[in-house]
Design brief:
The complex is a heterodimer. By secondary structure, chain A is mainly beta. Chain A has two helices and six strands, in the order ββαβββαβ. In chain A, strands 1-6-2-3-4-5 form a six-stranded antiparallel β-sheet. Classes of the chains: A mainly beta, B alpha/beta. Chain B: Belongs to the TRAFAC class TrmE-Era-EngA-EngB-Septin-like GTPase superfamily. FeoB GTPase (TC 9.A.8) family.
Chain lengths: ~80, ~750
């Protein structure tokens, strides 16, 4: 099982599950929900935060949050 | 007004151009204030909808949904749930952005559930062709049970149509567009039966939100055992969100099509450069340098002008008004006091010009992304970088710049620590003290010792700021959710109108908010410095004149006159020798005599004002605190200067000049006079190395600026934080100076 934090830059993935207790509701409302797609766009220097495109929302989240999102890779990085 | 204005609330996600829509609807007819008790900005504007219908427009803080996670968002919910609120809207306009319609509609469906007449404004519609987006408006209106206004606030398209729709609000449907309660039919059925009068969605919000509304309702809900554990609630909220998205996706599948072969935009390219691990920082620091440059040096041109104009105005009023206490109050108290407020305007305007351009363009979010990890260690936000750097020019605009930090704890820490950075008002104080106590030598051939000391003081200030942030982060127990989700908006060219309105607003809020405190305290300080109770104060002129007759001038002043006269004499002799003037020895003697009288009068006046200052209230205060500051190596004269520099740190030098009865315009004279100052008992120099270092450290750390305290009061909306700031910084400064002086002396 992979989490969002383990994706490589440019990889696209399907969200399988999110840990409801640690994920901010705001992120869910932006569309970070099981069944939606997510792409890792960039990682900040020092490895944190992560810049993702989820459900067409472009957001930065911290690594601790990304660890609570389980994903399945659908598209290898180009 | 003959009849009531229509009340309109603008609601929408951040970055949808909601504020632009607000500006387009209202122009400059805006009022900015705060919601009572909190620091969230409340913006109200007025708009003429039709010939005889006017509207009051409330620009609510940007929010992603009705599930609040910040004070800003609480404001939105509290208003929408309280029908008795004076601002409760007759009609809501949900502002969305065409490229992010899916996400924006989540909030829309929630507002619809509150059964408020709602209009859907789809902004940035001018970008539809470019992005290959097409909308089936009639279908969307039918499914979403609303009226849609396609607008572009940037290009002023569709605003009139929006006004018409608002005016026709009575025709809007108030029916919800989906049945969200189907996520748990049993639970919601019971809830409906228990509170038949209330709106179901409102009850649900009361259950899930931690905001203030009817205590009674909340208690009742708990009593009737509808309360659930946080985890259960969150699960239901997730279900609710999924449900809403299902509905939205179904609607958009038909009503929203996008031709993906069209332009992808410049976002990806710009992101790659601006957020690059090397270039990203290089660009960011280049921008910071530009901001610093503008606040520090460009604004000095208008500032010098303001300074001179107010000085001229003060002396004009002194000359032309009848002499008396009232004239003194105007020319020495009020005019310089107002000048002390106005002088900050150029810096504030420049800083906010840059900040609003950075915010509007979408760049600020990228800065947060780059700086977050580094700043987080100290309890700061990625956005704290801007206040910290601008603090090197002046803490006032810097503290105002912290408004962009959403997290209250991070913002508060930023406000509290910013005054530690070396602001430009400390520079003159540092410069003269360094010149006095640090030898003008070079070490290692190239490094100037005085320059190194100045640099060390800058670094010290920055280090102290970071260190206090670290400590405050550990001490402050403020409940503020530490979530971090930052939207990276599309890059956009900043709109001149938005930037201009923002700059004007920020400047106005400083002048109105902090200005009156600064003015009041400047007048108090002026009064204390120019009034005294004693017999000696009242008869200062006679006393000093008698003393000069009996004992002569002070040794320093006598030497000053002698030296100046002999220089004058040599100069005259020279010019005679070189045949520049054709004058005889009688002319020279006359010239010297005239010069002597002029100098004597000048020095006599200086000695009188020195004596007056000593006997004034501030002088008495300075002597009063001498026992306290003696262990730091200061005498009462320095004490007076420390007190008066609360008006602004650079006043330190002017006060010393005045108390040493020398001309405050001549820096070299002040310096040599300070050098000559000795302890009357021991005969040792007052400004020795130990006292100098102790003073430098005191000025580096002490909270000696009423203007900063005033702005902290304004920004935190309470006296608690400026008082803590004053006590913490000044105690720290005192302790450090005490220890250092005792070690060095």
């Amino acid at each position: 099982m992979k989490t969002l934090a383990q994706l490589k830059i440019g990889q696209k993935a399907l969200i399988l599950d999110v840990n409801i207790d640690t994920i901010p509701l705001k992120l869910l409302e932006m569309g970070c929900l099981p069944g939606n797609f997510v792409e890792l766009l960039q990682i900040a220097p020092l490895g944190d935060p992560l810049y993702i495109d989820v459900n067409d929302s472009h957001v930065a989240i911290r690594k601790e949050t990304a660890l609570a999102i389980t994903v399945e890779v659908v598209n290898e990085a180009l | 007004m003959s009849h009531k204005n229509l009340k309109v609330a603008l609601i929408g996600n951040p970055n949808t151009g909601k504020t632009s829509v607000f500006n387009q609807l209202t122009g400059l007819k805006q009022q900015v204030g705060n919601y009572p008790g909190i620091t969230v900005e409340k913006k109200i504007g007025f708009s003429k909808l039709t010939e005889n219908l006017k509207a009051t427009i409330l620009d609510l803080p940007g929010t992603y949904s009705l599930n609040a996670s910040s004070i800003d968002e609480n404001v939105v919910i509290e208003l929408l749930l309280n029908k008795n609120d004076a601002n409760y809207p007759d009609v809501a306009v949900v502002v969305t952005e065409v490229e992010n319609l899916k996400r924006n509609l989540l909030l829309f469906t929630q507002i619809k559930d509150l059964e408020i007449p709602t209009i859907l404004a789809i902004n940035m519609s001018d970008r539809m062709d470019y992005k290959g987006i097409s909308l089936d408006i009639p279908y969307l209106e039918e499914q979403l049970k609303t009226k849609i206004a396609l607008i572009s606030s940037r290009k002023n398209i569709g605003i009139d149509n929006l006004k018409h729709l608002i005016a026709d609000y009575k025709t809007l449907s108030t029916e919800p567009c989906l049945n969200a309660s189907s996520i748990d039919v049993d639970y919601f059925d019971k809830l409906r039966h228990a509170f038949p009068k209330e709106l179901l969605y409102k009850l649900w919000l009361v259950i899930t939100q931690d905001v203030n509304f009817g205590e009674l309702e909340r208690k009742e809900i708990a009593e009737k055992s509808f309360a659930k554990s946080n985890s259960e609630l969150k699960k239901m909220q997730q279900k609710e969100t999924i449900k809403r998205y299902q509905f939205i996706n179904d609607v958009l599948k038909v009503g929203y099509t996008i031709d993906s072969s069209k332009a992808k935009g410049v976002r990806a390219t710009l992101d790659r450069i601006l957020m690059h691990k090397v270039f990203g920082y290089v660009i960011f620091f280049a921008i910071l340098m530009l901001i610093f440059q503008s606040v520090f040096s460009w604004s000095s041109i208008p500032m010098d002008f303001i300074d001179e104009s107010f000085a001229k105005l003060a002396s004009l009023s002194k000359e032309h008004l009848p002499p008396g206490l009232l004239t003194d109050l105007v020319s020495e108290g009020i005019i310089p006091g107002i000048g002390g407020v106005v002088i900050f305007i150029p810096q504030i305007a420049f800083l906010f010009l840059f900040i609003s351009v950075l915010e509007e363009s979408g760049y600020m979010s990228r800065v947060v992304f780059l700086m977050d990890k580094i700043m987080r260690r100290f309890g700061l936000s990625g956005k704290s970088v801007v206040p910290l750097i601008s603090g090197t020019a002046c803490a006032i605009p810097a503290i105002m710049a912290s408004r962009n930090i959403e997290n209250w704890k991070e913002r508060l820490i930023t406000i509290l620590i910013t005054p530690f950075t070396t602001c430009s008002a400390r520079l003159p104080v540092y410069a003269i003290l360094i010149a006095l106590i640090i030898p003008d030598k070079r070490i290692l051939g190239i490094l100037n010792l005085q320059g190194l000391t100045l640099m060390a003081l800058y670094l010290l200030g920055f280090f102290m700021a970071i260190f206090s942030a670290y400590i405050l982060n550990k001490i402050l127990k403020i409940k503020s959710k530490s979530y971090f989700v930052i939207e990276m908006p599309n890059y956009r060219l900043p709109l001149f109108k938005n930037v201009a309105i923002n700059v004007i607003e920020k400047t106005k809020s400083f002048v109105v908010g902090a200005g009156k405190i600064i003015l009041a305290i400047s007048i108090i300080l002026w009064f204390l410095g120019s009034h005294g109770m004693s017999h000696e104060y009242a008869n200062a002129e006679t006393i000093v004149k008698e003393r000069i007759q009996k004992q002569g001038l002070t040794r320093f002043n006598q030497n000053y006159i002698d030296n100046t006269l002999s220089e004058h004499y040599t100069a005259l002799q020279d010019s005679v020798a070189k045949n520049i003037y054709k004058i005889n020895s009688q002319d020279i003697a006359d010239s010297i005599a005239a010069k002597k009288i002029e100098l004597f009068e000048k020095v006599e006046n200086q000695e009188i004002s020195s004596f007056k200052l000593e006997k004034s209230f501030i002088g008495v205060l300075g002597k009063g605190i001498e026992p306290v500051i003696r262990p730091l190596g200061y005498d009462w004269k320095i004490g007076i200067a420390v007190i008066t520099s609360f008006a602004a740190r650079e006043v330190f030098i002017g006060t010393l000049a005045s108390i040493y009865s020398v001309d405050s315009e001549e820096e070299a004279t002040i310096k040599s006079r300070m050098e000559a100052e000795v302890n009357p008992v021991t005969g040792d120099k007052i400004f020795n190395f130990a006292t100098g270092i102790s003073l430098l450290l005191f000025y580096a750390f002490a909270m000696q600026c009423i203007s900063t305290l005033a702005i902290t009061k304004k920004e935190t909306n309470s006296w608690k934080w400026p008082v803590i700031q004053l006590v913490f910084m000044s105690t720290f400064a005192y302790t450090v100076s005490l220890i250092v002086y005792q070690i060095l002396k």
